[in-house]
Amino acid sequence: MTASPDLRTPQLASPDLLRSAFRQHAAGVAVITAGGPAGPVGFTATSLSSAAAEPPLVSFGIGTGSSSWPVIAETEYVGVHILGEHQQDLAATFARSGADRFGPATRWHEGPEGVPVLDDVLAWLVCRVVARVPAGDHRLVLGQVVLGDPAGVGRPLLYHQGRFTALRD
């Protein structure tokens, strides 16, 4: 049986309302990387979307207070990595403020255009940044896919109810 929405108790728009509503939304987990003057940067993103097929475009959001933002704000190319369910620790590392994201526990190689490419992901793409659109305290970054590899093995990692999880059969 489905329940009707309770229209008598709506909440006014707020960051808490948005966060609470999106905890109900299962999202795929990606890591975005870029090469910076002081070394590679990266962060976990659940906002990755396919934006267009022709030309092939993706989008993701990044907070302007993020430690990765200064590099993402200037770089020409980014790496987009779709994580598998076996990569919860990697997702947590790239989500944690102050973590050594490219330390010994992270397996990666320098890829095309100097973009850090993570090992053992389900898919990776190198994208040329074509736009950075202001969106409140974030920026929506639009990247045109240049090349990549979708041949990873496994099932996708998901983010739901504030935690990393896997698909259930």
UniProtKB/TrEMBL annotation:
Q: Which InterPro entries match?
A: Flavin_Rdtase-like_dom, NADH-dep_flavin_reductase, Split_barrel_FMN-bd
Q: A GO molecular-function term, please?
A: oxidoreductase activity
| Pfam families xref list | Flavin_Reduct
> Which major enzyme category is it?
oxidoreductase
Which keywords accompany this UniProt record?
A: Oxidoreductase
EC number annotated for this UniProt entry: 1.-.-.-
> Magnesium among the record's keywords?
no
Q: Where is the Flavin reductase like domain?
A: 22-166
Q: What is the protein name for this chain?
A: Flavin reductase family protein
